[in-house]
Amino acid sequence: MTNVLVCIKRVPDPTGEVVLTADGSAVDGRFAGWTMSAHEEAAVEIATQVADGGTVTVLSVGLAEAEEQLRSALAVGATDAVLVETDTLGHGPADIAEEIAAVVRSREAGGTAYDLVLLGNDAADTGDFQVGVRLAYALGRPVVTGIQTIAVEGATATFKGEGPDGTEVFELGMPCVATVLEGGVSPRYPSVVGRMKAKKAPLETVAAVGASKGAGRVGLRVPPPPPSEVVVLGEGAAAAPKVVEVLKQLGVLS
Amino acid sequence: MAELPARAQCVVIGAGIVGNSLVYHLAELGWTDIVQLDKGPLPNPGGSTGHASNFIFPVDHSREFADITLDSMKQYKELGVFTESGGYEVARTEERMEELRRRMSSAKAWGIPAEIVDPDHVVEKVPFLDKDQIIGAAWFPTVGVVDSLRAGTIMRERAIDKGALTVVPNVEVTGMEVVEGRIKAVETNQGRIEADTVVIACGVWSPKLARMAGAYIPLTPAVHQMISVGPCPQLAERPGEISFPIVRDMDTLCYERQHGSDMEVGSYAHRAILWDPEDIPTIEQAKLSPTELPFTSDDFDPQLEQAYELMPELLGAEGAEIRYAINGLLSLTPDGYPILGETPEVKGLWSAAAVWIKEGPGTARAVAEWMTHGNPEIDLGHSDIARFYPHQKTRGHVKARTGESFIKTYGIVHPSEQYTSARNVRLAPMHESQKALGAVFYETAGWERPHWYESNAGLVEKFGEACMPRAHEWDARWWSPIINAEHLQMRETAALVDLSAFAMFDIVGPKALETVQHVIVAQADVKIGRVVYTPVLDSRGGFRSDLTVMRLAHDRFRVVTGGAHGMADLKWFADRLPADGGAALIDLTSAYTTIGLWGPNARAILESVTKADVSHAGFPFGTCRDLEIGNLMVLASRISYVGEYGWELYVPMEIGAAVWERLLEAGKEHGLIPAGIGVYGTTGRIEKGYRAYGYELDSERTLMETGMSRAKWKDQDFIGKEAVIAQAAQAPQAILCSLTVEDHTSASGVKRYMLGGEPIVRRDGSILTDGHGHHPYVTTAGSAPSLGKHVLMAFLPPEEAVVGNELAVSYMEELYPVVVAANDATPLFDPENKRIRGLA
Amino acid sequence: MNTLVVVEIEDGRASLVSRETLAFARGLGLGELHAVVVGAAGASVVADCAANGVVAVHEATNAELSSYAAAAWAVAVETAGRASRSTTVIAGGTNRGNEILAHIGARRGLAMAANAVSVVSTEPLVVERQVVQGNALETTALTDRIRLLTMAGHAVAPEDAATPGPAEVRPFEAALTPAELVARVVRVEAREGGDTSGLTSAKVVVGAGRGAGSADGFGAVDALAARLGGAVGVSRVVTSLGWRPHSEQVGQTGSRISPDLYIPCGISGAIQHWAGCSSSKTILAINTDPDAPMMTKADYAVVGDMHEVLPALLEELG
């Protein structure tokens, strides 16, 4: 039985073209919709797999609207949710880490100790690549990043992620922190029953500690898209030799 | 990639089901140079067609919709993209069962196979449905699904193969060039293309494109939520796209439609989520497509539970996940009808918008016929884009009405049900007085019209059973016995009727006579001061309208017509003005109010307020003249739609209240009452057998069939003359009859009163079919209090149109005996029209 | 005052992104350019550093650092930073580069900017960096005395300095505590290569859509997938029509794939499908319609009927 805390963030769905809000300060999700990142979906999936009867709490630091993402996670197996309600526009990565750490501490004081804290490897919008590490230091726990699978055996967790020379394996005693990279597990879609349960699952809203470090953000822009660069290899059967040439270049012919 | 040509005979904008069907039908009808544009890629450019659920339930309470849908199904079948699945509408409540019985009436009337079945019938075909949740269902065996994208591709290809069509995808329209009121060219991001005819078939984007030309297509993009759950093991092993009937869970406003191993659940139960066309994302901005917007799960959660209730084992199956969920955009209009036809604002610019998959090919065929021949085979009167008054074109109106009606998509809507939104828009000058009299207002074309007056409630006591009270709540809903009491009082003394909703316009100028003569059937070259009631026909001899024309001067004619189709009539005349400017049309609709004064005492009442001679000899029937009422001047016309002696008074808006008050006051000692539209529109006219446009009269009906043919036609040419002469030489395919209901008693003992739309069958329940292949149905139903009968009008097969013929009407799945009382225009009440002439 | 670049080693050389980072760091002109390497740098790496004008290569020689442990590696970089008196520390925007600098940031309470692409100003240091998965650029100011940043790959070209630097190798031992070695790689396993037939893990996916024509139209598709050791993926309509099982569906309602090569045949590329295949590294589309979205979004396109192109291709492959 493992208690897992999964930290997720409400971000604009990255599938469509990026559109900025009217004031240019943030990415707008009104067309594409809002979601949690693929890394976080994988983290939730891993959490439900390793919990083995333990608690899977999902946490988000953000506006009240983030309840939608928390409920989505509840619909695929998380057991309860915490929303640290605050506008994160002025928060830097260190501040977010502090907000999460505060919840971990208060939950521990309340009797729920998290053996594992999972985060996405990087936020789909701000892409800071550091909240997990900063959180680990704030909690005084070890941390591994870029993890794709986790197995728990007793008090030890085995983490695997892709390194430059192959699949790297880490073994850590819990409690510890890990950031998850998509690709190791297939996140599920919610079931109808899951969705119905999620509607009624407990969600605690807590006050934010507040940003003390702040972010260094001073501007945001969307660069023009690269032009279509399709290379037409030819027409009909006559194109076959050129296709083979490309296959060779790509190294897919063994 | 196809290059954008510089010129085309016709440009069709949009490659959804409507645009694709339209280019095909135009090519079939001989158009040779069509260019079709879409800003998206093919075959799915990203509009509503791309995410449609693609199923077709043929039954609808509207005949126009039903005919168009049946034609569409025929076309889909011919294209090889139709799969019959059958479909259920299931009921969880008794109220819904009653509505399903009512739908049986419509199904029979339109000739659509349907039956009421018990829950066992449903679970036999849909084994994963929880039988305990439903009490019954309607079974429609001919329901099916189509591949609308594939249909579109085939139809485009056929038009291309004919050499008639060039398709240019990925091109965005940026502007419209209009010169002297006529479309000249379409501007795009790839250049300009000239065309005399341009069709906007752009679904949810149509309003935006219309505005580029200065025209209006008053629809709104609205969200319809849909999810797809799967894979469901119960569905997985079946071949093909669909092998289980579609289920409409009417009481929860949801549908469940199998799609391979997935079950799609769609909802019309959520709050109305309306968009503006300008806010729809581009293809690049959108996550899926511009019309598949982010799903808002909160709005859908209640429906999810209801769907789960109905199909727990299927939707709760191990491994079945919500794999797809969208807020799909579709087009809604303020009155629920599509928006078709040439825009009144810009000649040559057409709209084919707000059309669903089930109506796409049929609508396109009709619009193509309209564009080619000037009229469609299936009447599209209710869908005519020219129907909108200015206020109805506003975003505010469109959003208010669609916001109210969205939830009624699967709702139980009474045929007389009134909107609560966008009310009190057009108020008669005597509105305050009417309110004080306890008027119950119904809305027509934005006008608040008294339907009856609570101040007349005492008359119900006076007339008692003669008011024909209705015991059943449904029959009595949106109705009052006061209507019948007002009717009886009018026949006894006199009634004052507010007719402000009339549309009115003058044709003036040296060629006014020529213009009017060409448009109307009756002789227009009459003495000044004559009033002519006349049909207006299309070139095939079908009705465009029926209206009255007053000759006010040698070069001035005043046309008075019904409010509902007034704007369409106005366009019909405007389109036929001489090109040289020899006649002009002046809209007076908002300048005049109309007050009707009728009844045995009408003459005495008018005499008490005017010095003019208003006797039958002094002011003959069918004439009009200015009339002094004290210090007020009105135009009085001696006609009647209720079969009584009296006048329509056309009164400048600003003195309308004064005239109304003076007449009410003067009428007191003569027993005058105010009477509502319930009398004018139904009871008064049905007793007299008067036909109404939109009910008995439409472009599919002829003078012969409606008993309005003439022994002799005027020498001058008029639109439809050739056709009516040919029709007169042949036996009609159907004949409009008046029927009386002989016994109202239902199986439960409660007396039932038909409201219109019900099928007329033989006494044994067997189906009748007229020469068109149509089945007779009730076009108008209403009390005839002076006869003590409930009267129905219907087009019967000629061999059945025999006075005294005993037939039956099917209402809520029960038969009631009826008898043919008239097979021509002969009034049932006062057949010699003595009252109108003041002889009674 | 000086600038320190974290150099990663790949195949015995300074990695491409490290060389890009060196070129960028040199361009900043913030004092001397130093490099830090964990483990023995080797002659080629030192040569790469020299070519980039590096003054000194700081080489962390602790035996414990032979396997990757981010916290310990961060201590090594910090030690080199102090030794080189650097106030700007830059790593490549790799998983490791980002992780190591994040550790330094956390340990020292410093801000860090990930995946910079360009510099706006040096005093204060303001950079533009990739956010929203590379789709937008954020301008970020680093106002701490010591500035930590990583460079996104391909943001600048690797380019040798006009004048090479001495690249003096300065070995050192970082002072490590056991806590910094808790999270370390305990072993490296060979990358899983076995399950290439799985749709989501296949390196090559051959896709087929309505263009297949019927359930019998997949012969050449299956053959090509087999020949390339890949998997077959299909569009929604194909499963809807019952031609292939749902497990093969790629798209919004099916699997999301990210193979090295995706070969969609007769798939127009509806947005639903694109959502499932857009992560493919290379797309080679075969379609009769050159305007189909898949054909314009692909890297390579063949205009033609899949039933002609695929047999010809199979024959060519032998």
What is the topological layout?
The complex is a heterotrimer of chains A (254), B (840) and C (318).
Chain A: E1 4-8, E2 11-12, E3 34-35, H1 38-51, E4 56-62, H2 67-75, E5 80-85, H3 93-109, E6 116-120, H4 131-139, E7 143-147, E8 149-153, E9 156-163, E10 166-173, E11 176-180, H5 192-200, E12 203-207, E13 217-221, E14 231-235, H6 240-250
Parallel strand pairs in A: 1-4, 1-6, 4-5, 5-12, 6-11, 7-11
Antiparallel strand pairs in A: 2-3, 8-9, 9-10
Helix pairs in contact in A: 2-5, 3-4
Chain B: E1 7-13, H1 17-28, E2 34-37, E3 55-56, H2 63-79, E4 82-84, E5 87-91, H3 94-110, E6 115-117, H4 119-125, E7 136-140, E8 144-146, H5 148-161, E9 165-168, E10 173-179, E11 182-188, E12 191-200, H6 206-212, E13 220-230, H7 233-236, E14 246-249, E15 254-259, E16 262-267, E17 292-294, H8 297-310, H9 312-315, E18 321-332, E19 339-342, E20 349-353, H10 360-373, H11 395-405, H12 431-436, E21 439-444, E22 447-453, H13 457-463, H14 473-476, H15 481-492, E23 494-498, E24 503-508, H16 512-519, E25 531-537, E26 543-553, E27 556-561, H17 566-574, E28 584-587, E29 592-598, H18 602-607, E30 624-629, E31 632-637, E32 646-652, H19 656-667, E33 672-675, H20 677-688, H21 721-728, E34 735-741, E35 760-762, E36 778-784, E37 789-796, E38 806-811, E39 814-822
Parallel strand pairs in B: 1-2, 1-12, 2-9, 5-14, 12-20, 23-33
Antiparallel strand pairs in B: 3-8, 4-8, 5-7, 6-7, 10-11, 11-12, 13-16, 13-18, 14-15, 15-16, 17-18, 19-20, 21-22, 23-29, 24-27, 24-28, 25-26, 26-27, 29-32, 30-31, 31-32, 34-37, 34-39, 35-38, 36-37, 38-39
Chain C: E1 2-6, E2 9-10, E3 13-14, H1 16-28, E4 33-38, H2 42-51, E5 56-60, H3 70-83, E6 86-92, H4 95-108, E7 112-122, E8 125-131, E9 136-142, E10 147-151, E11 168-172, E12 185-189, E13 204-208, H5 219-227, E14 231-234, H6 236-240, E15 261-265, H7 271-277, E16 282-287, H8 293-297, E17 300-303, H9 306-317
Parallel strand pairs in C: 1-4, 1-6, 4-5, 5-11, 6-10, 7-10, 13-14, 13-15, 15-16, 16-17
Antiparallel strand pairs in C: 2-3, 7-8, 8-9
Residue share in helix of chain A: 25-40%
Tell me the major beta sheet of chain C: 9 strands, mixed
Largest interface: A-C, 80 and 83 residues
In whole angstroms, the N-to-C terminal distance of chain C is 62 Å
Order of helices and strands of chain C: EEEHEHEHEHEEEEEEEHEHEHEHEH
